[in-house]
Every structure is written in structure tokens, then in C-alpha cells.
Amino acid sequence: MRHILSMLVENESGALSRIAGLFSARGYNIESLTVAPTDEPTLSRMTLVTSGNDDIVEQIKKQLNKLIDVVKLQDLSEGEHIEREMMLVKLRATRDDRDELMRLVDIFRAKVIDVTDVSYVVELTGASKKLDAFIKAVPEGLIIEVVRSGPTGISRGEKGLTV
Amino acid sequence: MPDQPAPGDSSNPANALMQLSGAEITVQALIDEGVETVFGYPGGAVLHIYDALFKRDEIKHILVRHEQGASHAADGYARATGKVGVCLVTSGPGATNAVTGIATAYMDSIPMVVLTGQVPTPVIGSDAFQEVDTVGITRPCVKHNFLVKRVEDLALTIKKAFYIAKSGRPGPVVVDIPKDVTDPNIKIPYQYPVDVHLRSYSPAQRGHHGQIKRAVEKLLAAKRPVFYTGGGVVLGDAAEALTTLVRQLGYPITSTLMGLGAYPMTDKQFLGMLGMHGTYEANMAMHETDCLIAIGARFDDRVTGKIEHFCPHAEIIHVDVDPSSISKTVKVHVPIVGPVQSVLEDMLAVLEDLGGQPDRDALTAWWQQIDQWRGVDCLRYDRTSQVIKPQFAVETLYKVTNGDLYLTSDVGQHQMFAAQFYPFDKPRRWINSGGLGTMGFGLPAAMGVQIAHPDAPVACISGEASILMCIQEMATCKQYDLPIKVILLNNGYMGMVRQWQEFFYESRYAHSYVDALPDFVHLAESFGHVGMRVEKPDELEAAMREAFGMKDRFVFLDVVVDPTENVYPMICAGKGHHEMELPPTMSERELA
Ligand SMILES: Cc1cc2nc3c(=O)[nH]c(=O)nc-3n(C[C@H](O)[C@H](O)[C@H](O)COP(=O)(O)OP(=O)(O)OC[C@H]3O[C@@H](n4cnc5c(N)ncnc54)[C@H](O)[C@@H]3O)c2cc1C
Ligand SMILES: Cc1ncc(C[n+]2csc(CCOP(=O)(O)OP(=O)(O)O)c2C)c(N)n1
Ligand SMILES: [Mg+2]
Predict the structure, then answer these.
(1) pTM
(2) Is the CB of B322 under 6 A from ligand 1?
(3) How confident is the model over B124-133, as pLDDT tens digits?
């Protein structure tokens, strides 16, 4: 099963490699990993998507918690939460395809943020599934490049992941 | 020291403002941490630190002959005392040489602080002379590591390193110190932190009361209970509490290789070691038990055998300070996260509160069953042999030392024979590399033990292949007059490898014959030690007595043992506890 893990980690140079190293050393799956500083400069927030059966995910969480640099960990999949991912897509957009592409952009509430004679760059934010759906919907042969941030997430309600 | 007060001595208020360089801070922090001994080897990146060390005599520095020796010696020191072992090595090759010892300590959860020199911060990342990414290389085999980038961070980092190394589940911590951080010309005010708090690290202090109560109830209700204890009992200094609880309940107990001695092995409730080379009675009890309590043990694959066959009838209670040890390979019914010592105390208290008694009839029947298994005599060997059997050598060692010995080991058959035939009655007496299985561990580890306990008898049991991996440390033993006794079970083979080749590769002994061996007697002599060799069973005891009689000499006793002997019992790959290979019987031996 897919799990989205959210972590507060010490904002130190080694922290990221400790986490990445843990996954490779123990053979755990890692689908995506995003990391950036938070409002608290000494902390980074990391969102990691992994998958495995319950026992493996349990072990992954225990091993992550064991790392000295991991301050707090929450398995967002265990409760109500919101996930968002951002995607930039470069599309081949010549005269003939422009109408069709604009319709898609509208339907998916995306934005065209760069235009040339022959291309668009489209920005789209949403749940990862929505991003998948957009890519599927683009007519064949028109995608030049796809950049995705990997999902980030936050739990619903008033409780926050803080120290 | 000259007549001025020691820097950093907090009893002197004038010292609150003591100005120290990074090198001096490193040394002073070790002193303030209570470190008495450092095992090390100098080199460019740590020369400022060595210079600071030179001026202070509160710390004894033991100069090893290879940095692997330094890390194993610090490890042996830690295992024998429970204190944090410390070593100091230079950057690059100094650090990489120490890695085997760091990984060894990591696998067995040994508290250690390793100070490594690093190239100066401005040149880090430029492939400078003797630069390696020490933090990167050691990351997967340390509990934690640090690169100290500013001299202002040095004292606090060292404080954190010691705290992390010894608390919770212990382990090695590396502190990588660039040379410019130890610059003797840059002095800053020094104060060693009294306390340290890490917001991201707070090991469990007590077990959950409700879970402890549940565990005790299950134990009392059990018909065929077994205690399965491990290195955690030794690490957590809980031998006494364990012994009290086990005696009070009257239940059988078995231990992993790492836990031997935590419960007196000569006691009748002790079933011997369990696992791959464990006793028949211990493994059968595991197979038949209806209630298993694991304490400070981590369900290693050498212990469980095939998981599907592991304790098929049991409810399992597991006490461990590290949550990630619980239900890692075997599903546990009653997990208790906490330090063994406090959990055992709580269990004893709950037991008293409940006032319950074990089921005496069931227990009697259970012991009858166990006695039947004991009757199999699974550790039998040919006692009439005209060549020295390794088992006989260990039994003789036990006899000669009256069971009162610190025994370190290398890795191989000799290690297993020692575990099977030398019953330790106290913890921290049996010192070996279990998790990593590092050949070369024994001799340097014995140095650490002997330095920690200068007046105690210390021996290292080894094989002719293992001993050569750190043989250079005989020079260290000479320099510091360490009266260690090396008991070499010389079978001419990498016996453990040869055994596997005999069993699983139709006796194709690919590169397991140890050719071109040195003359160990002369080798020892050339290092300034006493060398002895015995070849006959009836000469062994006298030789050992002579060796141990030389109380102030390092003696290397080369014992020529049967090259064909195998370690039994054995659970082969893919088998369960009930499917052991037993040693051949007398008549089978005669047939062969
Ligand atoms: C050639 C060879 C053969 C071997 N054969 C066998 C064999 O037949 N049988 C066998 O048993 N082993 C054998 N081993 C050793 C084996 O590989 C493992 O090292 C060993 O079984 C692990 O022991 P342990 O479970 O006690 O764990 P350890 O490695 O000692 O781990 C200790 C556990 O206790 C926990 N702990 C630490 N401190 C505390 C505390 N204060 N409170 C609570 N918990 C704590 C830790 O978190 C950890 O889970 C062999 C090794 C070699 C090299
Ligand atoms: C550093 C290292 N290399 C290889 C091994 C694999 N290994 C395990 S036991 C063994 C043979 C040990 O031979 P010896 O020291 O003579 O002991 P014996 O088994 O003969 O008693 C080997 C090579 C190891 N454990 N450690
Ligand atoms: Mg050998």
C-alpha cells in the first residue's frame, strides 16, 4: 500500500543523505521525496511517498524515527489529509493543437505560463492522480517535457506537525 | 602538569573563562567526560590534537599498530566495562582502517566514540591529501555521526556524541574534526556542557505498565515457558534483575551468543545457547514453548532459523529499548519498549503485587521434557581422541582458569566451541563479534579488556586464520606489557568455512586451507613474548597452567587441534529449531 510520510527533520547537511541512505541500504521503496525549509529555520519538512505491506511500512517508520535527525514523523495516510503536487509540462503547441490544449488547460484548471510560436509551458497543481490524468489527456506526441515536484501533504483539522 | 590548575576545572571559578584551542578542547572534553583511555594512531590531520594530548597526563593514550586495532580495542574496553570506548585516528586511511571496527561495534550495539581527523574545512571536497568523506563512509554503520565545522561547536558535539553513544540502544558515534577546527592559535572560551538535550532523540526510560502487567499474566499462565535473552541484558546491566526473575519463576532460560553470562551458565535452569549452533534442549524448548519472553534480543537469523518454523506454538513477549527491533522479523504479541533493567524491576514488582504462582504441575512436566532433551547429550565429542579436540581445549581452558576469565574471541569454529564449552557465570566476560562476525577482533579487543582490567586474567581464543588479521597488535601488547594469553586453536583450516564446504559443497575445500602458516612460537618470541606449542591432549593442561602461571607475560599458546572437527549441533539453512544436525554418535564415528 502507498503511504505518504511527513517529517520534520533537523535542517542539517547530512539529514537528507541519512534518509535517502536508509532507504537504499534497507531496500525500501521510495517513490518521491520533497524537502524544503520551514518557517522555523532550523527545521526542514520532508514528504516521502513509499509503499510496502504493513510490516514493511511499520519498520520504515521505526527506522526513520530512529534517525537522530528526524524530529517528528507522521504517516498522513493514517488520517484525513490533503495532498498536492505541482507539475510543469512543456507541450508542443502549434496552430492546429492550440485549441485542444487550451480546452484541457481549462478543464484541469491549469495555467499556461510560457508561450512561444510552437510551445506552451503549463503549470498544474493538484493531487497526484489529477496530474496523471492531465498527462493522459494530452494528445499523443505533444508532450516535450514533464517536471513534477512529488507530492507534499498536510493533515486536515487544527492539529499540526510541529515541535 | 605544571603547578597551574588544569584548564576547564570547574571547581576553580577563574577557569570559567579558560581560553582553549580546538585541539585543547578536544582533549579537555574527553577528560571532562571521564575518559581515561584513548586508543589511537597519529597522522597529519590529528597532530594538533596529539600535541594537546602530549601536554596532559590525565588521559592514557594506547598506541595501536593499525587503526582497526584501535577501534576493536576501544570496543573491547567498552564491552568489558560498560563505559564508552574512545579512539582517535587520522583522516583518510586512518578513518577507513577504523571502519571495520566501527561496523563491528555498530552491529553489536557497543557504545563508542570515534574521533577522526579531517582535512581543513576550506579544502573539504577538493580531493585534498588524505581526504575521504568519513561522515559519508561511516553513515550506514554508526548510530550517528558529526562533522564539526566550527571550533565553537566542538565541546557540545563531543558531549552529544557521548550521550548518543551510551543512551538508549548504544552504538558507535563518529566525530569528524577538520584540522583547522583544532588550530592551536585560535582560542575560545571553553565550558563543557553539563547536560545535553536533543529534541529529536529521547530513548524510552520505562516500559508501558499495562503491557508489563499483561506480560506477567501471560508468563504465569504459561505451561511451557522459555526465557530467550540476548546482548541487551548485558548492555543494559540487568543481569542481576534477570537472574532474580528467572530464579523466582523457576523457568528455563536460553541465551543468544551475545547474552552469554548474563544468567549464570552453570545454573541448572540454563539450557545453553540457542540458534544455529545452540544446544538441542534450548532449540527444542523454543520449538515447543507456548510462551516465549525475549529480553534484549533481536531475533537474528542465526537464532530464528527459518521464520516459518519459529516457535510455532508460542505467544511472544518482547522487551527491547529499540522499537525497530520489535516485530522486525517475527511478529510479537506483547511488545514492551523500554530498558531491560527498569522493565525487569517493574515485572518483579508486578509479580509481587499479583501474588500469583506459576502452574507447578505444568512446570514439572515441562522440566521432565527438557531433561529428556538434555539426555541427547548434543555436545558430545570424542574424548578418547589422540589428537587434541577443540572442545577439549576449551574445557581445559575452563578448568585451568576456574571459570574466572575475560575471554575474547575471533570468528569461526573456535568461537562456537568457546560459546558451547566455556560456561560464563558473569556478564561482560565473553567478548566476541556476533553481528558482523569480524575475524581479527579477538586480539585487539583483548587489549581493551586488559587495559580496563589490568589485574584480571584475559585470554583471546582464536584460529590460525583469524589471528593473522590483526597480528601486528602483538607489538602494542609488548609496549604496554599486556599479559594476555592467546589460545590458538590451530586446525590448519578456516574451520568454519571448511565445515560449510564439507556439508554443502561436497567437500570441495576451495581456498579454506591455511597454507604457509608462520611458526607462531617464534613469531610471538620475535615480538618479545612467550610462545608455546602443544600437540598432545595429555600435555595441554600443563601447558595452559604454565601459560596462565606467567602472570606478567603475554603468552601465545599454539594448540594443534583436530583439523576435521565440526561444530554441532547445527541448524542448516532453511531448517527450523526442531531440525538440528546432531554430532555423530560413538558408533557412527567408528563406522566412519
Ligand atoms: C560464526 C557465527 C555463528 C553464530 N551462531 C550463533 C548461534 O548459533 N546462536 C546465536 O544466538 N548467535 C549466533 N551468532 C551471533 C548472531 O549473528 C547475532 O550476533 C546474535 O544472535 C545477536 O544476539 P542478540 O539477539 O542478543 O542481539 P544483540 O546484537 O546483542 O542486540 C541486542 C538487542 O538488545 C537491545 N538492547 C540493547 N540495550 C538494551 C537495553 N538497555 N534494554 C533493552 N534492550 C536493549 C537492542 O536494541 C537489540 O535489539 C553467530 C555469529 C557468528 C559470527
Ligand atoms: C574479516 C572476515 N573475513 C572473512 C570471514 C568469513 N569467515 C568466517 S569464519 C572463517 C574462518 C576462520 O578460520 P580460523 O580463524 O582458523 O577459525 P576456525 O574456524 O578454524 O576455528 C572465515 C574466513 C569473516 N568472518 N571475517
Ligand atoms: Mg582454523
Answers:
(1) 0.96
(2) yes
(3) 999 999 999 9
